[in-house]
């Protein structure tokens, strides 16, 4: 787990590189995401942080996604889920997405499996004359509660 001060420093640097400022309200949104132990929706964030204004939280989330600091996870649910981007937390992982209740869980796979995925995506990339930067793998189905 990355230290929260290091996280804020890294994000401030990324935003500065894009000519943007790491405002107090952006910082509050990042704190809210960092405190959550799974990807959360905007309503989740607002319930847990009643001092955040909905309109500015929404705008800040969109701007942080745009800046590559926050990742938006699209589910079948009406609300996107958000989390701090992998490259900042250093915790590459995947998602389990429930098609019934829209919940999203993080999961990791063993290192050997990650290597197999990279190998397979490398082959696809060669066939398609693509250069691949990284992969995303989400499993879609029903969670333990909805199964
Ligand atoms: Zn479910
Ligand atoms: Zn995640
Ligand atoms: Zn992976």
What's the total count of β strands?
Answer: 5
Total tally of structural domains: 2
Tally the helices.
6
Mean pLDDT: 92
User: Mind telling me which CATH architecture of the largest domain this is?
Assistant: Orthogonal Bundle
Binned strand content: 5-15%
Sheet with the most strands, sense and barrel status: 3 strands, mixed
Radius of gyration: 17 Å
Structural class: alpha+beta
Distinct ligands, ions and cofactors found in the model: zinc ion
What is the CATH superfamily label of the largest domain? Answer: Winged helix-like DNA-binding domain superfamily/Winged helix DNA-binding domain
Question: First CA to last CA: what distance?
Answer: 31 Å
The coarse overall form would be globular
Please give the share of residues in helix: 40-55%
* Low-confidence regions: none
Strand order of the largest sheet: 4-3-5
Quote the CATH topology of the largest domain.
Arc Repressor Mutant, subunit A
GO molecular function, one term: zinc ion binding
Keywords: DNA-binding, Repressor, Transcription, Transcription regulation, Zinc
Family: Belongs to the Fur family.
InterPro entries: FUR (IPR002481), Fur_C (IPR043135), WH-like_DNA-bd_sf (IPR036388), WH_DNA-bd_sf (IPR036390)
